[in-house]
Specification:
- The structure is a single chain.
- This protein is of the alpha/beta class and 335 residues long.
- The protein contains 12 helices and 8 strands.
- A 4-stranded parallel sheet has the order 1-2-4-3. A 4-stranded mixed sheet has the order 6-5-7-8, with helices on both faces.
- Helix 11 packs antiparallel against helix 12.
- It starts with 5 loop residues before the first helix and ends in a 23-residue tail after the last helix.
Length: 335
């Protein structure tokens, strides 16, 4: 199929694959970047397209010689990538690529990368396999992941943070503090604008690190959450006091500090009631608290039953304006 651009080429390949047929295309260098939008769609749609990419440099400067910067820029696109050494391996890998990509447990597009000029602009003798042997190794393509007039289905190309039968995500979209700690960062912390002394202490610690530091800061969103702007600091403080936002530090491979669980007279409703965005999310918030403390407690020795008891207090309704705990020094958070 002749098309006017690489973007159209990957789009056409997806169209071929979505109706249950085998698709092959090829590109190189800037052409792969032109395809970039479609690469993610192809991977997310589980379309087992096979593509040959001639590795060449990205402009500028321009070159027809080998450079893998084009394919390496797309490592996170969801495609399987392999790099071949010669013409024979290139031919063999294309056949194998279909077998791998079309496996029902894989269903992932496959990119075969070969050196620009060295392999693309030269001749080399290859052994072409017998067609019967190829057919035996690579059976006809059959998949349920396709459009069908006989059995129509929704391909489900969009999503939200909400889980199945859930009013919303049961956890944060990304547990950033846990992610950076898992990667061995020198210093990471969780802070809140509701406790500025603690916040500035952590900023100072991070500022003096020789390596990378990361601080995840809680700050409310008055417009999205339906809270007055002047209560932003108060709301951020309540998030900590009620256990919604856990203040912690991670330094050189270990957790240095974590807030103690506040006294049992305070519940998430101190935080929940004034925030219109969270109306009706009591059970969801309970699951969120339990998940956060379940991760943190084993590292810092907190009492898990106490956490469970804390969550059980969700049933008690309280008035947000009854808050009298105004000490900004965070006495229950050890340095």
């Amino acid at each position: 199929m002749h098309v006017e651009s690489e973007h159209s080429a990957i789009s056409a390949a997806m169209g071929v694959s979505v109706v249950g047929a085998r698709a092959f295309t090829a590109t190189s260098s800037q052409g792969l970047l032109y395809m970039a939008e479609g690469l993610f769609y192809a991977a997310g749609g589980r379309f087992p397209i096979v593509m040959m990419n001639a590795n060449r440099s990205l402009a500028l400067p321009w070159s027809i010689y080998g450079d893998q910067s084009d394919s390496l820029s797309q490592l996170n696109s969801g495609w399987i990538q392999v790099y071949v050494e010669d013409a024979q391996e290139t031919l063999d890998m294309v056949i194998q690529a279909y077998r791998i990509a079309e496996d029902p447990s894989v269903l992932t597009p496959f990119m075969v990368n070969l050196d620009g000029f060295v392999l693309t602009h030269t001749y080399e003798l290859v052994s072409i396999p017998n067609q019967a042997k190829v057919d035996e190794f690579l059976p006809p393509f059959s998949t349920h992941n396709k459009m069908s007039f006989e059995k129509p289905m929704n391909m489900g190309m969009s999503t939200t943070p909400a889980g199945r039968n859930q009013p919303g995500a049961v956890t944060h979209k990304k547990k950033l503090f846990e992610l950076v700690a898992a990667h061995g960062i020198e210093y990471a912390a969780v802070a809140s604008i509701g406790y500025p002394v603690d916040y500035m202490h952590k900023v100072n610690r991070g500022r003096h690190c020789s390596g990378t530091s990361f601080i995840h800061v809680y700050a409310s969103c008055p417009t999205g959450w339906g809270t007055p702007t002047e209560t932003s600091v108060e709301v951020a403080k309540e998030a900590v006091d009620c256990g919604i936002w856990v203040l912690a530090e991670y330094e050189n491979g270990e957790f240095k500090a974590l807030c103690s669980i506040p006294d049992n007279n305070r519940t998430v409703f101190f935080y929940h009631n004034p925030v219109a965005f969270f109306n009706g999310f009591q059970e969801l918030i309970a699951q969120l608290i339990y998940g956060v403390y379940s991760f943190a407690a084993p590292h810092v020795g907190h009492n898990q039953p106490a956490c469970s008891q804390r969550i059980n207090l969700l049933g008690k309704q309280h008035s947000f304006r009854d808050n009298t705990h105004s000490d900004q020094s965070l006495p229950y958070c050890p340095a």
